[in-house]
């Protein structure tokens, strides 16, 4: 998928009053993905989120299609460290920092998050892409460029999860193109302690359930009692 939906949403007050009560009806953990256009905005948002009955916050430092913010912080060690440490000062809840793959070296921003006190990093966000309508000779997306996700990005995501898991001590949450249980296993062997599924849900709403079944099948076939035992266990050639 190539999207440029930006980060439109009704804001944190609306979330508090409407979405959160709905989410609380389900027996599940709630991790809120948050993005601001300046460090002050990230901090203001984190202060509000700190007061809510949620299980954690994932800072989005990586959205490629928002003009101001996000991407500006996510591409360097210093940028990630700066915004993460400011948020850390006001947030007592578990803090995950979500990284952009649109960098030369993914380890640098990951270390910035770790050094600033993040509890984990998640990766990858979407890869910057572009697609052209050859009849009109113009990009398909109104924003010209957008974020690429889904199975096409999986090898990039697995590689980056592996590199980051080798370099940091905090847990790595892996995502990017996961649609099956086999994909989940691949991310865990690379070093992910947890995974997420985004685009897969657009293809098939039951993707997560089927992925869990696929993981269980793999565990049966390989006589694995505890899925944690495979984390980071890829044997490199
Ligand atoms: C339609 C769409 C909206 C997204 N919105 C967000 C967002 O608000 N915050 C964020 O951190 N990532 C966002 N992402 C990125 C995904 O969470 C995920 O990092 C990326 O798509 C790779 O995973 P996937 O291949 O499983 O989708 C979005 C992706 C898509 C396709």
Notes on the structure:
By secondary structure, this protein is an alpha/beta fold. The chain has a single domain (2-176), classed as TIM Barrel. Helices cover 40% and strands 15% of the residues. It is built from nine helices and eleven strands. The strands form three sheets. It has a six-stranded parallel beta sheet. Helix 7 crosses helix 9 (207-221). The radius of gyration is 18 Å and the shape is globular. The two termini are 32 Å apart. The structure holds flavin mononucleotide. Flavin mononucleotide binds at residues 1, 3, 5, 7, 33, 60, 63, 98, 125-126, 149-150, 153, 175-178, 197-200.
Output the number of helix runs: 9
Domains counted in the coordinates: how many? 1
**CATH top level assignment:** Alpha Beta
Residue fraction in strands = 15-25%
The overall strand count is 11
Main attributes of the structure:
alpha/beta, TIM Barrel, six-stranded parallel sheet, three-stranded antiparallel sheet, 11 strands, 40% helix
Summarize this entry quickly.
This protein has 237 residues and is α/β, with parallel strands linked by helices. The protein is built from nine helices and eleven strands. The chain is globular, with a radius of gyration of 18 Å.
